[in-house]
């Protein structure tokens, strides 16, 4: 959780922008030297952190250009009204252009980061993104001793369908899995496609084992209902492991292996079921 609440960030960033602008304009006025390039800093800062708010960035670019113009006028550098208006217009266009380029760069980098941790087929986290999130949860677990549960889901008979009907049909089944999981889990939990037909869901703060049992069973029911609509003999086997203090949780891959082993115990005893355990 961040130090600054999300709803307060725009106000904090705007105040920081104003403070930067005041300090730079004061220095500009007192030092009597050319430091106009420093005015780019506040605009870049605000454009980077308020990259979704174009109106705010345009207004702040205009405010910055106006500040530069006022300082230049007070210092006697710009006196002719036509010259003042011309320079103000040029500065405004430059700062707005820079602001938009900064916003675009931020969006591109943000999208690149999202793509690097997302599975393109199901829009769930991929293994890398999943292990990053799970690592954060492990840190929280070791600090606050809050139990959590890992569910490992595997489609039964998926390989047969994939081989006999083609990858397009197989991809369709995977998309059904991804959509159903995403629409069924709580907002506090997270899920991923780990590869192939293997998925995982992490349920947070599962002190009450009955709660996680109900959540997983409801998820399996919804998945099987959706899979039945495809007319393929495909079901889901699930292994669930609840990690409780003082179990020494360290590496995400070790915990996933525990849930994976639990899932394979279901496979060995008939598939299309759920097995629960605690450590």
Structural account:
- This protein is of the alpha+beta class and 279 residues long.
- It is 61% helix and 13% strand.
- It contains nine helices and five strands.
- Strands 2-3-1-4-5 form a five-stranded mixed sheet, with helices on both faces.
- Helix 1 runs parallel beside helix 3.
- The protein is elongated.
Task: Give a short summary of the structure.
By secondary structure, the chain is α+β, with helices and mostly antiparallel strands. Helix content is 61%, strand content 13%.
Q: What is the topological layout?
A:
Blueprint: H1 9-31, H2 40-49, H3 54-74, H4 81-116, H5 127-144, E1 148-156, H6 158-165, H7 167-184, E2 190-195, E3 198-203, H8 209-228, E4 235-243, H9 252-268, E5 274-278
Parallel strand pairs: 4-5
Antiparallel strand pairs: 1-3, 1-4, 2-3
Characteristics of this structure?
alpha+beta, 61% helix, single chain, 279 residues
- State mean pLDDT (0 to 100 scale): 91
Q: Gap between N and C termini, in Å?
A: 27 Å
Strand order within the widest beta sheet: 2-3-1-4-5
Number of helices: 9
Taking the sheet with the most strands, its summary is: 5 strands, mixed
- Poorly predicted runs: none
Helix content: 55-70%
Integer-rounded radius of gyration: 28 Å
Strands, total number: 5
Query: H/E order of the elements?
Result: HHHHHEHHEEHEHE
How much of the residues is beta strand, in percent? 5-15%
Category by helix and strand content:
alpha+beta
Judging from the principal axes of the Cα atoms, what is the shape? elongated
């Amino acid at each position: 959780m961040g130090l600054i609440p999300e709803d307060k960030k725009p106000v904090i960033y705007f105040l920081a922008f104003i403070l930067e602008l005041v300090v730079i304009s004061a220095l500009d006025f007192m030092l009597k030297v050319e430091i106009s390039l420093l005015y780019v800093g506040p605009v870049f800062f605000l454009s980077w952190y308020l990259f979704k708010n174009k109106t705010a960035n345009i207004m702040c670019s205009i405010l910055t250009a106006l500040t530069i113009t006022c300082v230049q006028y007070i210092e006697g550098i710009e006196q002719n009204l036509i010259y003042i208006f011309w320079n103000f217009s040029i500065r405004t266009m430059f700062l707005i252009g820079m602001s938009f380029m900064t916003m675009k760069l931020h969006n591109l980098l943000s999208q690149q980061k999202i793509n690097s941790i997302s599975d393109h087929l199901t829009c769930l986290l991929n293994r890398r993104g999943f292990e990053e999130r799970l690592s954060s949860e492990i840190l929280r677990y070791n600090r606050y001793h809050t139990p959590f549960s890992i569910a490992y889901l595997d489609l039964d008979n998926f390989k047969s369908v994939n081989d006999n009907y083609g990858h397009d049909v197989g991809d369709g089944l995977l998309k059904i899995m991804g959509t159903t999981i995403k629409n069924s889990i709580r907002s506090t939990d997270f899920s991923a496609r780990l590869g192939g037909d293997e998925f995982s869901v992490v349920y947070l703060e599962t002190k009450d084992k009955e709660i996680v049992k109900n959540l997983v069973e409801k998820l399996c029911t919804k998945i099987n209902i959706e899979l039945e609509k495809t007319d393929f003999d495909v079901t889901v086997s699930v292994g669930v492991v609840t990690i409780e203090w003082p179990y020494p949780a360290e590496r995400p891959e070790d915990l996933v292996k525990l849930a994976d082993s639990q899932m394979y115990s279901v496979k060995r005893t008939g598939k299309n079921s759920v097995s629960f355990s605690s450590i």
